[in-house]
Amino acid sequence: MRLRRSNPHAFEGINATPLIDVVMCLIIFFLLVGKLALDRGAQIRLPESRSGETDTAPDLLIINVFRTAAIDPVAAQAGSSSFVARVMVEGKQLASTGELETFLALRLAERPRTQIQLRADRELPFGLVEPVLRACARAGAKSARLAAEKPS
Amino acid sequence: MSARRRRNHAFRRRDALHNWSLHFGPNMTPMVDVVMVILVFFMASAAFIGSQWFLKAAVVPEAKAAPTTPPPPPAQDDPFALPPARVHVTLETSETGETLATALDQTRVPLEDFLVRVAAMPRGAETSALEVLVQPAASVPYNDVIRVHEAYHAVGVTKVGIGVAHSSPILNQ
What we know:
heterodimer, A: alpha/beta, five-stranded mixed sheet, B: 173 residues
């Protein structure tokens, strides 16, 4: 009896390789964009600057300082400022500058080449930004990158 | 039916899979897919990063930020006088909320006038060697601090520090 040869072009199922490639790329894309959005996408109106630097640091720590809608009654009575600032590092809100200082000291001890980038709202008085800079200095940072927006 | 027409008819009857087996060379489809996704990724990340840059500032500790004695003003009549190694710029706000700057021979001048004076500085070795320490008061808008930093950066002064001598307990009440 003569056996029938199988068809070499028979349907062997869907080729899933391109699908897996694209899905993996999409996962990586959303992970990275999510991280970027977490650090840089906070609702902060950065001060404008016509000059600046754009080089990238391998180990960058972004500190977001933004004002909230809440009014600080103590400061308003003192006549200094009615804003309340919030400090956010790596998506986590810190309760005080002491906590920020501890966090920065640990980070700089672990990774001494860490560059600190400060993203502060342009409408904040310097008195609300200065404690963050002071925490950086006390934690051992020599410099900070003050983020600014390119004028459109 | 001629032999030539029979031959053409036989070719037309081949199915798509058989035609695909006649292709040769690498399959470009996955590569094109991945390259397109990478292209979209870089476009999206450029939208996040591209509109921002930074000004590098030294964070000067409190002890160094508050000078015990102000630096002496430069001699106006001496043409050979060297520029001071470090310039202290003090920013404060007036009763009307205007930002005033004090540096060298200028005392409590409006910020706009001060920035014009800074912009008129000649670019050269003197400016690149200059160290500027900005000491803003707590009530000065952060935007004005950046404007002073930007003005010095634009004329080639790269060593700009922000003094943190003033204390402000208002944070995260």
